[in-house]
């Protein structure tokens, strides 16, 4: 070293340092905000009661439908639970048209979803589907309905296991007329308009689904404490003692089973510390937020999750490119860096570029060059350009992993599980934790640096990917809900 480019890249990278003392402060503040969220409504950390009061043990059985709305794809699946910790899953995935995510009405969106459910039933369960249609036409007897778990991965104020009103959209969705409405009722009515044999039995956040699915499949007797997503967005759901959820006392209409003494809480940790009392805040974070469609909201998520890491990197690269004393991609063709180039476009850089850069071990960084060509249409990047990209990528990814440790550690400490249990099981899902190289290593290093966790505590933490968690988890919750008549119509 050090050319002006690498020196400047290193200087910017340092702004993303998130040292142990800050991690520790973050944990203390997370615990404070989580207690506040358990006591009151409208707090930065929502701590939403889900009315799911038990986690499965692997013996559950039956065929259920599940749908998942929450990222770029809509998934429909049917899940056969075999009752021996295993399951079979059939699924289809459809990309959601951008106009339905952000400019249409809720009717457009939910009709689209119901149509996908219909197509899925016709392909995979046509016999059942036709039999139902026949029975209806002939006006014969009781209908047989599929119970469906609806994984809806946005902040929702739940009123019961199968109803909840949307608090706000996140992750680039924006359909204002849905806010404040019961999303289960919206889906059910679109399903009924198409006359499908389907009952929306449960409303599930993806983190809750992940927690349930991990608990169903995880090895041994240990129940899972926390389900966490590090994907397009980030969030966690954990098992809380009902006596600690003091705001439940004000929810007079709520009906739920109290026998386990526990309830799953959807933390909505993407909005941890929206007031930025402890979160790191570089100029790139500030600009990203100011230009987003929800400024001041999901501030933790905007530093951690897949939807945003690419955009943070793009902004740092652009700063290097615009700096006349430094310059990056000087050897790239003029066309690839004209004023409408991807590098200049908001959301122009996908987070999977960071994974590719971080994974690179190729001679002459050829993989990084290919990735820059594929993602940003930049040809002829020099070795030095690639080195600068690497330095920044590493800093941004590492900060995200260390921030993730803050939320996980806070849940471990707050629930006291490290004191009482030998193994604490955590189920995770999402593209960042699955594909970002060394994400878990950085996260674990930070866990060890936290006084109340330390080396001994970190060793107790078992982290496992819960693949397809939201589908299986939704099926499991649909099962619980369909068995409990009082839950089906909480106000009856
Ligand atoms: C966003 C949503 C949250 C979801 C998470 C992961 O943070 O608000 O509900 O769990 O993304 O998909």
Quick summary of this structure?
With 492 residues, this protein is of the alpha/beta class. The chain has helices at residues 4-14, 20-39, 98-102, 106-124, 126-138, 183-193, 206-217, 283-290, 301-304, 306-322, 352-359, 366-376, 383-415, 417-420, 431-435, 439-449, 454-460, 469-483, 485-488; strands at 48-49, 61-69, 73-82, 87-95, 146-152, 156-160, 163-166, 198-204, 224-230, 234-241, 262-266, 424-429, 461-465.
Summarize the main sheet. 6 strands, mixed
Considering DSSP H and I runs of 4 or more, what fraction of the residues is helical?
40-55%
- Mind telling me the C-alpha Rg? 23 Å
Number of strands: 13
Based on CA inertia axes, which overall geometry fits?
globular
Q: How much of the sequence is in beta strands?
A: 15-25%
Assign the structural class, choosing from mainly alpha, mainly beta, alpha/beta, alpha+beta, or little secondary structure: alpha/beta
Write a concise keyword list for the protein shown above.
single chain; 492 residues; alpha/beta; six-stranded mixed sheet; 19 helices; globular; disordered C terminus; binds alpha-D-glucopyranose
């Amino acid at each position: 070293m050090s050319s002006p480019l690498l020196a400047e890249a290193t200087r910017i990278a340092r702004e993303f340092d998130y040292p142990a003392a800050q991690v520790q402060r973050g944990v203390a503040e997370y615990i404070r905000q989580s207690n506040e969220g358990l006591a009151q409504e409208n707090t930065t950390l929502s701590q939403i009661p889900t009315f799911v009061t038990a986690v499965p043990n692997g013996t559950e059985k039956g065929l259920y439908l599940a749908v998942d709305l929450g990222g770029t794809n809509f998934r429909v699946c049917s899940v056969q639970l075999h009752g021996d910790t295993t399951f079979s899953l059939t699924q289809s995935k459809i990309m959601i048209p951008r106009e339905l995510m952000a400019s249409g009405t809720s009717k457009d969106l939910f009709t689209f979803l119901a149509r996908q459910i219909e197509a899925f039933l016709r392909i995979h369960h046509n016999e059942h589907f036709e039999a139902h249609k026949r029975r209806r036409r002939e006006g014969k007897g009781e209908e047989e309905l599929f119970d469906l778990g609806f994984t809806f991965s946005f902040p929702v104020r739940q009123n019961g296991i199968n109803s909840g009103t949307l608090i706000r959209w996140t992750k680039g969705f924006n359909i204002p007329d849905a806010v404040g409405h019961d999303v289960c009722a919206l889906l059910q009515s679109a399903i009924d308009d198409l006359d499908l044999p389907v009952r929306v039995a449960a409303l599930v956040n993806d983190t809750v689904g992940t927690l349930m699915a991990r608990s169903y499949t995880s090895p041994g007797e240990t129940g899972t404490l926390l389900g966490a997503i590090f994907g397009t967005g980030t969030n966690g759901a954990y098992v809380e003692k009902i006596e600690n959820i003091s705001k439940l006392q004000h929810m007079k209409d709520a009906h739920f089973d109290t026998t386990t003494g526990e309830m799953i809480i959807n933390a909505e940790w993407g909005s941890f510390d929206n007031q930025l009392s402890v979160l790191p805040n570089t100029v790139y974070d500030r600009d990203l937020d100011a230009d987003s469609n929800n400024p001041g909201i999901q501030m933790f998520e905007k530093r951690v999750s897949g939807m945003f890491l690419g955009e943070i990197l793009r902004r740092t690269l652009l700063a290097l490119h615009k700096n006349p004393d430094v310059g990056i991609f000087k050897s790239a063709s003029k066309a690839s860096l004209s004023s409408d180039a991807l590098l200049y476009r908001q959301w122009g850089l996908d987070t999977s570029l960071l994974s590719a850069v971080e994974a690179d071990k190729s001679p002459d960084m050829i993989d990084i060059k290919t990735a820059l060509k594929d993602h940003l249409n930049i040809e002829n990047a020099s070795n030095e350009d690639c080195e600068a990209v690497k330095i920044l990528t590493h800093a941004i990814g590492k900060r995200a992993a260390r921030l993730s440790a803050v939320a996980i550690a806070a849940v471990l400490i707050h629930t006291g599980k490290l004191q009482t249990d030998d193994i604490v099981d955590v189920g995770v899902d999402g593209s960042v934790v699955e594909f970002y190289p060394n994400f878990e290593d950085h996260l674990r290093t930070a866990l060890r640096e936290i006084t109340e966790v330390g080396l001994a505590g970190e060793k107790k933490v078992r982290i496992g990917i819960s693949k397809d968690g939201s589908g299986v988890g939704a099926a499991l919750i649909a099962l619980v809900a369909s068995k409990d008549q009082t839950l089906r119509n909480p106000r009856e």
